């Protein structure tokens, strides 16, 4: 024991002499002897060991914040070791790539430092050379212990220059501090020029409770908080609307303790969550607001009044008459799950009643005495009772019975109320023009419209989830087709509702009634294609289409023509189609596939099915 004490005393004496020599020689490195509790190599980074007096050790904790310095010599555990601490140039053991100017922190490898690019908690030195100088696995560094306190605040020296502490309660040890508890209660306000927090002043920064708003308050946006409990709704209602960044902000009523304001179009009228924009070519004016009392004159003006981002159901209600317009519907996005746009024409009622009986293809009313085919090609709608919501084109009628094009999905009965209607709204784009074109639109419904122009009626181009309900085209144009749906458009669903492709009628069309191309999925039901110059329905260019419950009659060549790698499905049984008086009922060609082309379809044709060698029919 005596020998060990003498040895330690000798080491301490030598260390003191060494330090005196350094100072005498003008060195700037502070070095002290400490007790190593782990083995230490020269250049290792050591941290304080709280388990021993003057104890230091290596660590594998990255970013440790209790760095004591860098070992100047190699010793085994339990021996004294000279540790360099502040200033000067010291060789430090490092791991990985270190570049000159990087900050050093402890790494996950015991005793080794690693370089980081920006100051952070745990830095103890800065590299003055890259790794490899003075030796592999080392770099020279300038030790600056305590520098990391500027980033941790652990010593109470405060935040970095320009930074601010926001605390819940006051802390005298922190500089540039703002304590929330020192502020009065109220709305917190930030002053941008200084970054200082304060409490907003009622009447200056916001409307004080009980303030009675005037029209001037709202128009110049001096106040934005509306107090519904202090009867401010009537004042707002009298204002009507104001303009904010080019959009109209309109008072639309109150509910409970809320005053409802809407940003977007103020055209039309809002009722029950649906906005209706009215069009009447006879009495309207495009300078009007589009209400039922003051309608627009043109359909295009009504479409243009729809916001670019639609957030609600919108119905464009078009009065009876002929509209000489070539319409382009584009530029709208459905911005919510419930958003939609429906363009709806007028129905002119011919008769109504309650059924006394029905079959899959008929409806009877023994109280009637209709003239033979007096209602041919009109729409028959079930308006109440069993089968409510269904519609179909009338193929023919007797005094008391109506035969429909296609079949009922739900057969009506004696509870079923019905209505017989003609289409009263006609869109005529003029010779050679498309009357209605949807270009990259989603969620748009066209309903109860007709066209007699010698050109295409409706073209859907890359417009998905579209609905065509109760549309009729009657044209002698021999160079085109009545309806064209293409480029990944999707028709889906059934029934007289959004998302269906039901009751399309092409009558006496010069060439093709309906052409479907490049559809990823399509469903067509209860539709009628009669006396088309070439084909009732053409499915082409890879389209995948399910046609059921429909009627093709007396089309010159084919009832349904499937070509160019298309896939056609037709249902049988209760939903079979009626294909009659064509040369060929269904024709498959050009590597097309007829899947489940049911023999339960009714064929009154010269040839029911025809397929070339490249096509398949099952």
From TrEMBL:
Residues 283-326 form the DUF1565 domain. SUPFAM superfamilies: Pectin lyase-like. It comes from the Bacteria. Residues 1-30 form the signal peptide. The keyword 4Fe-4S does not apply. Keywords: Signal. The keyword Iron-sulfur does not apply. This is DUF1565 domain-containing protein. The lineage of its organism: Bacteria, Pseudomonadati, Candidatus Hydrogenedentota, Candidatus Abyssobacteria.
């Amino acid at each position: 024991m005596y020998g060990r004490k003498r040895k330690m005393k000798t080491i301490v004496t030598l260390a003191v002499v060494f330090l005196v020599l350094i100072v005498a020689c003008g060195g700037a490195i502070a070095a002290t002897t400490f007790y190593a509790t782990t083995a230490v190599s020269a250049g290792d980074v050591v941290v304080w060991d709280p388990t021993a007096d003057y104890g230091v050790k290596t660590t594998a904790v990255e970013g440790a914040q209790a760095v004591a310095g860098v070992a100047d010599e190699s010793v085994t555990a339990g021996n004294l070791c000279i540790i360099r601490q502040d200033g000067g140039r010291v060789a430090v053991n490092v791991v990985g790539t270190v570049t000159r100017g990087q900050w050093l922190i402890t790494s996950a490898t015991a005793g080794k430092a690693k370089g980081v690019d920006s100051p952070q908690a745990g830095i103890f030195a800065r590299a003055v050379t890259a790794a490899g100088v003075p030796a592999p696995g080392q770099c020279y560094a300038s030790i600056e212990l305590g520098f990391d306190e500027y980033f941790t605040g652990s010593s109470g020296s405060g935040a970095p220059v320009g930074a601010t502490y926001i605390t819940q309660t006051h802390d005298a040890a922190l500089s540039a501090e703002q304590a929330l508890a020192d502020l009065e209660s109220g709305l917190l306000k930030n002053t941008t020029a200084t970054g200082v927090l304060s409490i907003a002043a009622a009447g200056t920064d916001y409307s004080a409770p009980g303030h009675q708003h005037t029209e001037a308050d709202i128009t110049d946006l001096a106040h934005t908080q509306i107090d519904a409990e202090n009867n401010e709704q009537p004042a707002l209602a009298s204002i009507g609307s104001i303009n904010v960044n080019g959009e109209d902000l309109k008072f639309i009523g109150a509910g409970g303790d809320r005053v409802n304001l809407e940003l977007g179009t103020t055209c039309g009228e809002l009722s029950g969550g649906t906005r209706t924009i009215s069009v009447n070519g006879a009495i309207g004016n495009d300078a009007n607001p589009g209400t039922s009392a003051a309608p627009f004159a043109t359909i295009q003006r009504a479409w243009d009044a729809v916001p670019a981002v639609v957030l609600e159901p919108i119905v464009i209600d078009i009065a009876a008459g002929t509209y000489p317009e070539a319409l382009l519907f584009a530029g709208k996005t459905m911005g919510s799950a419930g958003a939609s746009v429906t363009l709806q024409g007028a129905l002119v009622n011919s008769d109504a009643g309650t059924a006394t009986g029905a079959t899959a293809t008929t409806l009877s009313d023994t109280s009637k005495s209709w003239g033979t085919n007096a209602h041919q090609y009109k729409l028959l709608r079930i308006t109440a009772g069993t089968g409510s919501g269904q519609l179909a084109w009338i193929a023919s009628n007797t005094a008391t019975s109506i035969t429909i094009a296609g079949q009922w999905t739900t057969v009506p009965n004696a509870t079923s109320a019905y209505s017989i209607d003609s289409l009263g709204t006609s869109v005529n784009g003029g010779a050679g023009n498309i009357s209605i074109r949807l270009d990259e639109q989603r969620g748009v419904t066209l309903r109860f419209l007709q066209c007699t122009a010698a050109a295409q009626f409706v073209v859907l181009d890359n417009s998905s989830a579209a609905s065509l309900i109760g549309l009729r085209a009657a044209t002698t144009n021999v160079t085109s087709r009545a309806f064209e749906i293409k480029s990944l458009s999707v028709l889906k669903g059934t029934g007289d509702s959004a998302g269906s492709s039901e009751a399309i009628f092409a009558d006496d069309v010069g060439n093709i009634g309906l052409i479907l191309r490049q559809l990823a999925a399509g469903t067509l039901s209860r539709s009628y294609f009669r006396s088309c110059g070439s084909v009732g329905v053409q499915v082409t260019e890879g389209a995948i289409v399910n046609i059921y419950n429909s009627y093709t009659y007396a089309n010159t060549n084919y009832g349904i023509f499937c070509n160019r790698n298309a896939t056609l499905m037709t249902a049988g049984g209760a939903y079979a189609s009626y294909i009659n008086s064509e040369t060929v009922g269904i024709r498959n060609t050009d590597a097309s596939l007829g899947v489940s082309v049911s023999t339960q379809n009714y064929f009154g044709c010269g040839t029911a099915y025809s397929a070339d060698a490249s096509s398949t029919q099952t």
